[in-house]
Design goal:
4 strands; disordered N terminus; two-stranded antiparallel sheet; globular; 60% helix; 196 residues; single chain; two-stranded antiparallel ribbon; alpha+beta
């Protein structure tokens, strides 16, 4: 692939290669799409959940290209890889048996963490109104993992929390106003923020 030149805000010329982006897409593909004994769906709900598990972060990542949002892409990388590291470290150290008894990597749900990480990235970077379909899809992923006996409810809730936290920690709003639900100490509401 050709090497492109790009000017930064302070007019310094920076060289970057499309190879890095292709490498990330390859990692995303091999991490999320390659079939494993648990990714091979036994029913339609499970297979749809597996497709959405890949589609949601792929759309989030693809949006950074569509909007020429290189800062967002860097933030996505940080959230995505942090999410994978935390999720799979916990899977290996906690060793909780799945409801179907296939292995001892039930906690937390990797499908849920990846889907919710993508949805939370869209939410935090581009706003809640764009993230609603992604959150609905991620919720379906979580439901499908419990329905297919791959996880207990606590596994998918923990996966969702890890995914959301990994994006919210590293992601900054893109432009305009961002609306975020807020809850704590007996109150519920919304927070509105704008990047200046």
């Amino acid at each position: 692939m050709p090497v492109k030149q790009m000017k930064t805000r302070d007019n310094q010329t920076v060289l970057y290669s499309a190879h890095r982006q292709l490498l990330f897409l390859a990692v995303l593909f091999f991490t999320l799409l390659l079939p494993t004994p648990y990714a091979m769906a036994s029913d339609k709900a499970e297979s749809t959940g597996s497709v959405l598990r890949t589609l949601i972060p792929a759309v989030a990542y693809g949006t950074t290209f569509y909007l020429h949002d290189s800062d967002g892409r860097k933030q996505f990388y940080k959230g995505f890889f942090t999410n994978l590291a935390v999720t799979y470290t916990l899977k290996k150290t906690i060793s909780k048996t799945r409801p179907n008894g296939k292995d001892d990597e039930s906690f937390p749900s990797g499908h849920s963490s990846v889907a919710f990480q993508g949805a939370a990235f869209i939410h935090k970077r581009y706003g809640l109104k764009y993230a609603v379909p992604a959150y609905l899809g991620a919720s379906y992923v979580a439901w499908s993992r419990v329905e297919s006996d791959n996880h207990f409810t606590v596994d998918v809730v923990a996966g969702a929390a890890i995914g959301i936290a990994s994006s919210f920690i590293f992601t900054k709003p893109y432009k305009g106003f961002v609306v975020t639900p807020v809850a704590g100490n007996g109150f519920y509401g919304i927070g509105i923020s704008k990047q200046w």
